Structure formats: C-alpha cells, structure tokens
Amino acid sequence: MLMKAESHSGQAQLKRGNLMAIFRQLRLHPGQSRVDLANALDLTKSTVSALVRELIDNGWLLEREVVVTGDIGRRPTPLFVDPARLLLLGTQVGIGHVRVVLTSLTGEVLAARSAGYDTELEVEACIAELTRNMLAVAARRGDAQRIIGIGVGLPGGVDQARDQLVFSPHVHWHQVPFGALLREALHGTPLAGVPVFMQNDADVAALGETEFNPSPTADPLLLVLVGEGVGAGLVVGGRLLTGARGLAGEVGHMVLQIDGPRCSCGRRGCAEALIGNRALMRQDGDAPDLARAGQYLGVLLQNLAVAYDPACIVLGGPAVELGDALLAPVRATLQDYAQAARMPEPTLRVARFGADAIAVGAAALAGYRLTQPTLG
C-alpha cells in the first residue's frame, strides 16, 4: 500500500512539473503549438494535448484561432498564457510606505494602491495597513477572476525556510515572523488561504525582470536596487540565488571608501552611505554631488560584474529617477574600467517596471514559486 501511495504521489508530482513546464515554455515563447511544445519539452503529443486542455480549463492558457492565409492544410493552433482569469497580488513593504499591485500571470498591472505607515509603531501596524490595501486592490478583480498567489517584497534579509524577516535595519525589525502575521491578518477575509510568499525587495525586483520580461540573452541577470538602502538580486538559469540564510545581495554594506561617511550598519564607507537616499538627498541646504555618487555606483557595479559576470545589469529604485545626472557617470565609470582591462563593457539598463519594480516583482515571486514546484 505504501509503495502504491508513493507511486501515486510521484506521478502527481511529475504531472504537475509537466503542466508548469508547458506554462513556462509558453510564457517564454508565446504562440507555440502543441506540436512545438512536444518537441521542445520532449513529451508525447498526446501527453501535451491532455495537459494543455487541463491548463486551458483551469485558466492558465488560451488558444487563438489561426489566421487563414490560403495555404493548403490545417495550421497548428497557437497557444498563449491567459492574461485574464488567474491573477497575482504583489506587495511592497517600503520604509514608511506600502504598495500593492494586481497583475496578470505575465505582469500586466491591472490595479494598484499605495499608503503610508508609521515606522515608529510595531510591525503589526504595518501589516494592518498592508492588509487593508491588499483587500481594497483585490476587490477590484472581476467575478470570473481568481487570485492564486500573494508575493511580498521586504526591506531586509528573509529566511524563507523559517518564514521570517531576519533583519530590516531601517525600521529596526529583527526576527519577525512576517509570513505568519500576514496570514493571520488575512484570516476570515476573501484572501484567506491564498498562498503567501515573501523575499527581499531587491530579489523580487530581479525576479520581476526575469519572470515578466524573460530573455535568454539576460542570463545571469543582476539587479541593483538603489533607494533608502542598496541591495542586489541575482537570477541564474531561472533560479534566484538567496544564500544560506537569505542574506545574499546585501551589497549596500560593501565598503567602497575607507574612513568614509558613517553607514546605518555602524561601519564607514559602505555603498549605502555613499549612494543611498540619504547621500542623494539635499542636506543642510547643500546639493548632493550626483556625479560623485554615480562614480561610486559605477565602482560598485564594476565589482559585482567581476564577481558574478552577469549577462545584464539592471538598475532600479528611486535613485534611477534622477536620470542622466546619476546614470551618465555610472556608465562612464563602467566604460573606463572596461577599456582599462580591455574587456567588454557590461550591458546596463534601467528596470522595466520603474517605481513598481518591487511590487510587481513580488507578484512575480508568487508566480515563480507556484510554477516551479521543485522549489518547495
């Protein structure tokens, strides 16, 4: 009996893996036919047909009619990710503010809402405000639409195995069971029971770029988020690298200047102290030196490029809104280093989702976790 149960479980897991492989293949290559999918995924045509029918019935995919061209013979029916029936809810917990977006499975933002919270209060106050906004945005979905996952981008290291926010220095939260507290707040609401996933804000922003804007030429992808702090997310082969304790990517505390300005972590000369929001804001009536900050950001990106050799570096966060005043010296610094070493300059671009990079990325996290069952 046990062997049969294990066999049944294994078959169910294999089927789930094949279903999600088809979904992810069509998100990367929309318009493929059942025959195309069978060839690409090394599955039989009958297996693909059965799985595609299930995905269509459950709201993941749709098929479109073939345009008549006059060619002889029946043309294969193209398949696409359904943009309407299944939705994702993405949430950003910032420093003193929250943002919630409702997206399709391919990242189109259907509704959004923002609000502030008092960072001097306990974490429960933030979660209460976050919950109110989540419910307000979720209420804007249609009667035939269903939210299948909730993602949360948090300002600090996240231990997914323990479902905890390890440390958020800017709001002084330590070892917070954020996932459990949020699920408790959602109990008895229309979002009760919807799977909740959480991760560091830079990590989810990186996933937003790879899940909702996939490109084989951008792998590995390194995203650097410059805001109140400075963080990075790295996606390699479609997998997010988070480190043993969920603290990978805390690049804001790499030291760029010996005996530099004091950082929030207590050390001097960290990237955050040189290029974070406090360094870029006007203080005591003096204008910040954006050219100098851009040079330091270029140095940070150069160091990360040497460490990880990414195919693409993406810049996101509020600092990007400063435009060429900050970005021109970043590019010039990268170019100088590349020319000196006779190496190609790293590919650099701005985050696709702009100010929504974290919230949309959080929705991408939910989709990522739901469609890659081997991730747990």
UniProtKB/TrEMBL annotation:
The lineage of its organism: Bacteria, Pseudomonadati, Pseudomonadota, Betaproteobacteria, Burkholderiales. This is NBD/HSP70 family sugar kinase. SUPFAM superfamilies: Actin-like ATPase domain (SSF53067), Winged helix' DNA-binding domain (SSF46785). PANTHER family: BIFUNCTIONAL UDP-N-ACETYLGLUCOSAMINE 2-EPIMERASE_N-ACETYLMANNOSAMINE KINASE, ROK (REPRESSOR, ORF, KINASE) FAMILY. InterPro entries: ATPase_NBD, ROK, ROK_cs, WH-like_DNA-bd_sf, WH_DNA-bd_sf. GO terms for molecular function: kinase activity. Keywords: Kinase, Transferase. It comes from Roseateles asaccharophilus. Belongs to the ROK (NagC/XylR) family.
